[in-house]
Amino acid sequence: MTVPKSSTESICDHCGLPVPDGLYEPDAEHQFCCNGCKTVYNILHGSGLESYYKIKSAVDSNAQPAATTGSNYEELDDPAFQSTWVTESDEGTAEVELLLEGMHCAACVWLIERLPRVADGVIDARANIRRRTVCVRYNPNDIKLSSVAQSLDKLGYASHPARGKEAREIRLKEDRRFLIRVAVAGALAGNIMLLSIALYGGEFDGISEAWRTTFRWYSTALGLAVLIWPGRIFFTGALAALRTRTAHLDIPIALALLSAGIWGTLNTFRGIGEIYFDSVGVLVFLLLVGRWIQHRQQRAASDSVELMLTLTPSSATLIDDDGNTKRVPIETIEAGMSVQVAAGESFPADGTITAGTTTIDNSLLTGESVPITSGNGDPALAGATNLSSPVTVRVQAVGEHSRIGKLMDLVAQASEHKTPIVRMADRIAGYFVIVVIILAIATFIAWAMIEGITIGIEHATALLIVTCPCALGLATPTAMSVALGRSARAGMLIKSATVLEQMAKPGTMLLDKTGTLTAGQTTVVDSYGNQNLLTAAAAIEQSSNHPIARAIATAFDTDLAATDITQTTGQGITGTVNNQHILVGSVDFVLRSTNSEIPPELQPKLVRLLDRALTPILVHNAETNTFALIGVGDQLRTDAATSTQSLQRRGWNLEICSGDHPRIVESIAHQLNIKTHNGGVTPEAKANRIAALKESNTGSSPIVMVGDGVNDAAALASADVGIAVHGGAEASLEAADVYLIEPGVAPIVKLTDLSRSTMSTIRVCLIFSLTYNTIAASLAMAGLISALIAAIIMPISSLTVVAICTRAGKNVAPTKSSTHSLESV
Amino acid sequence: MSVVYIMIPVALLLAALGVAAFIIAAKKGQFDDLDTPALRAVFDDDETPPESIKEKSVTNDDDAAV
Question: Which chain A residues contact residue B65 at CB under 8 A?
Answer without folding.
Answer: 113-117, 124-125
